Amino acid sequence: MSITVKYFGAVAEQTGTSEEELNLDETGNSVAQLKAYCVQKYDLEEEETIQLAVNQVLNAGEKLEEGDEVAFLPPYAGG
Q: A Pfam family matched by this chain, by name (predicted)?
Protein backbone atom coordinates (compact mmCIF):
# COMPACT_ATOMS: atom_id res chain seq x y z
CA MET A 1 0.00 0.00 0.00
CA SER A 2 1.61 3.21 -1.10
CA ILE A 3 1.00 6.89 -0.42
CA THR A 4 2.36 10.07 -1.95
CA VAL A 5 4.29 12.34 0.37
CA LYS A 6 4.94 15.95 -0.60
CA TYR A 7 7.37 18.28 1.13
CA PHE A 8 7.16 22.06 1.00
CA GLY A 9 9.45 24.97 1.81
CA ALA A 10 12.13 24.39 4.41
CA VAL A 11 11.03 20.77 4.81
CA ALA A 12 11.68 20.11 1.11
CA GLU A 13 15.09 21.72 1.47
CA GLN A 14 15.93 19.37 4.35
CA THR A 15 14.72 16.24 2.56
CA GLY A 16 16.27 17.16 -0.78
CA THR A 17 13.07 16.23 -2.60
CA SER A 18 9.62 17.65 -3.06
CA GLU A 19 7.75 14.38 -3.52
CA GLU A 20 8.12 10.66 -3.04
CA GLU A 21 6.10 7.47 -2.88
CA LEU A 22 6.30 5.58 0.41
CA ASN A 23 4.98 2.19 1.42
CA LEU A 24 2.74 2.06 4.49
CA ASP A 25 4.25 -1.31 5.41
CA GLU A 26 7.53 0.54 5.86
CA THR A 27 6.30 3.74 7.48
CA GLY A 28 3.38 2.51 9.55
CA ASN A 29 -0.22 3.36 8.75
CA SER A 30 -0.86 6.31 11.03
CA VAL A 31 -0.06 9.99 10.56
CA ALA A 32 2.08 9.99 13.71
CA GLN A 33 4.07 6.96 12.54
CA LEU A 34 4.64 8.51 9.11
CA LYS A 35 5.85 11.76 10.66
CA ALA A 36 8.22 9.93 13.02
CA TYR A 37 9.53 7.85 10.09
CA CYS A 38 10.28 10.90 7.95
CA VAL A 39 11.73 12.92 10.85
CA GLN A 40 14.18 10.11 11.52
CA LYS A 41 14.90 9.35 7.84
CA TYR A 42 15.75 12.95 6.99
CA ASP A 43 16.78 14.18 10.45
CA LEU A 44 14.20 16.96 10.14
CA GLU A 45 14.65 19.98 12.37
CA GLU A 46 11.88 21.60 14.39
CA GLU A 47 9.67 18.56 13.99
CA GLU A 48 7.13 19.88 16.48
CA THR A 49 6.36 22.83 14.18
CA ILE A 50 5.82 20.75 11.03
CA GLN A 51 2.15 20.31 10.17
CA LEU A 52 0.76 17.47 8.10
CA ALA A 53 -2.20 17.60 5.78
CA VAL A 54 -3.81 14.43 4.49
CA ASN A 55 -5.59 14.82 1.16
CA GLN A 56 -5.33 18.62 1.62
CA VAL A 57 -6.98 18.60 5.05
CA LEU A 58 -4.96 19.77 8.07
CA ASN A 59 -5.14 17.59 11.15
CA ALA A 60 -7.06 14.96 9.22
CA GLY A 61 -7.79 11.49 10.54
CA GLU A 62 -5.14 9.43 12.20
CA LYS A 63 -5.16 6.42 9.87
CA LEU A 64 -3.60 6.48 6.40
CA GLU A 65 -4.94 4.49 3.48
CA GLU A 66 -3.73 3.41 0.07
CA GLY A 67 -3.47 6.36 -2.31
CA ASP A 68 -3.52 9.09 0.33
CA GLU A 69 -1.50 12.24 -0.33
CA VAL A 70 0.28 13.63 2.71
CA ALA A 71 1.87 17.08 2.74
CA PHE A 72 4.61 18.09 5.16
CA LEU A 73 4.18 21.83 5.72
CA PRO A 74 6.83 24.07 7.27
CA PRO A 75 5.98 26.44 10.09
CA TYR A 76 4.30 29.64 9.02
CA ALA A 77 5.44 33.06 10.08
CA GLY A 78 2.92 35.72 10.85
CA GLY A 79 2.80 39.18 12.11
A: ThiS
